[in-house]
Specification:
There is one protein chain. The protein is mainly α. It folds into two domains: 10-44, no CATH class; 51-132, no CATH class. The chain has helices at residues 10-16, 28-40, 51-70, 75-80, 83-87, 90-98, 104-132.
């Protein structure tokens, strides 16, 4: 048995075949050029950051908050300051503003991490002072 296959000409393929999202093959050339440009310059490729870059930004922001909390100059404010005084600190405000470009969720997460860190440090120093006395200087 022999079957004969009708093969369309290249002109028929461009006219008939469509991709899954309905784009004609002839319309793919501009999209391919755009894709090549995006691959060549990944920073300008998208308006929104990728999930990996968001995670990296959050990690850096979290580290910056931790460094601020643990800095010796901020120890009194962290241990005895109220939320308004802490939020009003210019160095902390600069850290949070730096990450505003990633949206309000990033700020909320960094503020939640700040609250956790402050609570953690207050508990640590309270336990340290209870164990070794208030005259002892915690590390």
């Amino acid at each position: 048995m022999q079957f004969e296959i009708d093969r369309p000409s290249p002109m028929q393929v461009d006219d008939v075949v469509q991709t899954a999202d309905g784009i004609r093959l002839g319309d793919l050339a501009p999209k391919f050029q755009k894709w090549k440009q995006q691959k060549a310059n990944p920073g300008a490729a998208t308006d929104s950051p990728s999930n990996a870059s968001l995670m990296e930004a959050f990690r850096k922001g979290r580290t910056a908050v931790e460094n601020w909390v643990d800095h010796e100059d901020n120890k009194t404010l962290v241990l005895h300051g109220d939320a308004a005084a802490i939020q009003g600190n210019p160095q902390l405000a600069a850290i949070l503003v730096e990450y505003d470009k990633f949206g309000p969720t990033m700020r909320q997460k960094l503020q939640a991490h700040l609250a956790f860190m402050i609570d953690n440090r207050r508990k640590y120093y309270a336990a340290y002072n209870a164990m070794f006395g208030s005259s002892a200087h915690a590390p």
